[in-house]
Amino acid sequence: MKVTAPVLEHHREPLGIGEPRPRLSWRTETDTPGWTQEAYRIEIIRPDGTVLADTGRVESADSVLVAWPGEPLGSRSRVGARVRVWGEGGAEPSDWSPVTWAETGLLARTDWTARPVTPDHEPADAPLPVALLQRTFTLGKAVASARLYITAYGVYEAEINGSRVGDHVLAPGWTAYRHRLRYQTFDVTGLLREGDNAIGAFLGEGWYTGRLGFGGGRRNLYGEHRALLAQLEVTHPDGTVTTIGTDEPWRATTGPILRSELYDGEAYDARSARPGWSEPGHDTSGWPSVTQLPFPVAELVAPTGPPVRRTQTLAPVDVITTPSGRTVLDFGQNLVGRLRIRVSGPAGHTITLRHAEVLENGELGVRPLRHAAATDTYTLAGQGVETYEPRFTVHGFRYAEVADWPGELDPSAIEAVVLHTDMTRTGWFESSHELVNRLHENVVWGMRGNFLDIPTDCPQRDERLGWTGDIQVFAPTASFLYDCSGILGGWLRDLAAEQLARADRVPPLVVPDVLPFDFGGTPHAVWADVAVLLPWTLYQRFGDTEVLRAQYPSMRAWVEVAAELTEQGGGLWRQDFQLGDWLDPAAPPENPGAARTDGDLVANAYVARSADVLAETARLLGEKDDAVRYEELARSVRAAFADEFVTPGGRMSSDAQTAYALALCFALLPTDRQRQGAAERLAFIVRKADFRIATGFAGTPLICDALCAGGEPQLAYRMLLEQGCPSWLYPVSMGATTVWERWDSMLPDGSINPGEMTSFNHYALGAVADWLHRTVAGLEAAEPGWRRLRIAPVPGGDLAHVKATHDTPYGRAEAGWRIEDDTLVVEVLVPPNTRAEVQLPGDGEPFEVGSGRRTFRRPYTAPAWPPAAIRHPFAAAE
């Protein structure tokens, strides 16, 4: 057996972490079937080999988020951690794991001696050129080690002695700047030398002063001045430390980037480049001085997740000449990123690059961009082959229009650079159905593009905001596909900070909160419930109780608001308008909130659900009085819900797919008669709709589960496999490579939906992938954090084989099935130190297995597809 290097908290790169007592997780790799850990031993060591803590043998099977065994770490502490384990009944331990070296950042405000400096002397109401800030300094001794702690009001890229620091994009990212400002830590030992040195940074507007929001947006939302805060600490061989921080001796100027905006793109004039500007000896005597600003009021926080990075490049798959004679490159995939070009031509010649997700009438479809120009320009220096990639902008696109390319365009000279938060992929799905596979791949690409430092809603238009409802419904899918614990854990801290600073204690519709309105100043179910349901999802998927503890004040605050709203409504939350089942396909283009399901029905279903989850959270955290209170709230709302919205026979007041899905999945039907009646009615209206989807944000994650709960799994498959509009496979049949915002973002004739709000990259409706993983393949966590698995595949449709794979905290898990003649073959992989409950089709009772790879066979006759029994009697013939 072999033990992997331990992970501290959720950090893949534990440099500059913010936790003084980081928890440890490890995996054991072994081929021994049924292997279970009996004990572990952890050592914490210094770089010189001194042992700081040694647990000795600890009798425990725990291996995920195990408590820190030593004293709390202070700022700048560098330690190593290693683990060895004993298997159940094993006399000898494993070898020691590799050592994971981790280092804390600056944990106290007093650790910062630098102050923010700004190049901006007057507030601006127009785009600013990217600033160059620089300072030279002399080191009188050799360099043993060096760290750069750095952040910005805006976005930055740092350089030392002409070399770029790190590979982060759009650092420090977007947080709730009024409350929390993230900083990064870089090991820059190899970039410094004894003698003269220089440090510099590009400083752009980013989210801080740049234009944000739709309808033209607003500038300077967080402040009127960009600023850089940097502290370089150089340790010498004799132990002394030289600190170079941002202060008034720094100088600033402008360079070749005339503007660089998130929505509108970048203008770059290579003739204005300043070669060697971040190297010692560069003449900065004519550069203006900077202005020192007060130290940030916001808390300076270390990252909890990975940064945005370049993760892939794509070459164009086609060069299109449009009906108007324009040249458009097709990259074959709707993506989030920007272009990188290699070009030569005369000085002063300008190339224009425009971006869009789709074509309409053969031309670039720019109407969905609204007020986002999504255009980059590059003016050549005329110095041979020049390479250009924008620095502080990002676009959502599949197609790029190239105008004024000097000479004949060679498509190999242009590539698309994919950007997103650099999360570790953890989940995969494959089947015999190519359209279902493409649907799943679209979900993955949609998540990649919209997890750009925060979970956003669309990457192409003048919005790109952290809508709370979207991630609430998509989080179960997201946490299967990627290790998103870090990015979402940090985002939840921002949510709590924004929410608890509000007088009404209602979670904002977007986080960070930048909307100038709140849809009438009222709370909205589904969106506000993210405060409760997202922490619960992260706990279920990653086994992290501390995320519940950290978010408990936020969770409780929202449910208290909901409780007050129900009290004011005589037992139910009543409100004139709810976002509710947003983007029901029946809603007209100009009114996406006009759903078939009553908004009050949706809201009260969610009150009951959030109260149930909060009661369970309170029990886990030892808050016994709260557990009783919220159990009673859930009970009373369920009872009032049944009285108000459900007939004795199970008919819902809104005779719509979402209403039945919520009632069935959220346990809102108190009697067997109501549950049976609701299940039968749901099946009827799905058949009557010719298997077309009729749900928006609230119903889409639940509809297939509701059909399965009602004993209609083949009907769920029939819905999944429908290709008519609206359906999950309709966009796939139209060539989509990401999930659309609307079921009909593109109409069957190839025209773009006439609504103003139309995105072709929006993950919310891709929440069905969670059902593909859990039910179609049959792989899910039976206990929080995957300590126990449940493997219960439900074959169906005309699928001949399916497989899901997930890298759990304990190791890789797999569940797959295939049909061989009249036999169902189920293959599973259970990771070490876990067990699985297995429920196979045709078996009466589940059985339990330990870790290892196993194959099971059961007699199985695949039904004729599609079975006549699932059709509505008045539907047209297949």
CATH class of one domain: Mainly Beta
Largest sheet: 10 strands, mixed
Number of helices: 14
Could you name the CATH topology of one domain? Answer: Jelly Rolls
Count of DSSP strands: 46
Plain-language structure description:
- There is one protein chain.
- The protein is of the alpha+beta class and 878 residues long.
- Among the domains are: 2-104, Sandwich (Immunoglobulin-like), CATH 2.60.40; 112-257 and 271-301, Galactose-binding domain-like (Jelly Rolls); 308-421, Jelly Rolls, CATH 2.60.120.260; 785-859, Maltose phosphorylase, domain 3 (Sandwich).
- The chain is 21% helix and 27% strand.
- The strands form twelve sheets. Strands 22, 23, 26, 27, 28, 29, 32, 33, 34 and 35 form a ten-stranded mixed β-sheet that branches.
- Helix 3 (468-481) crosses helix 14 and helix 9 crosses helix 11.
- The longest helix is centred in the middle third of the chain and has 24 residues, at 545-568.
- The mean pLDDT is 96.
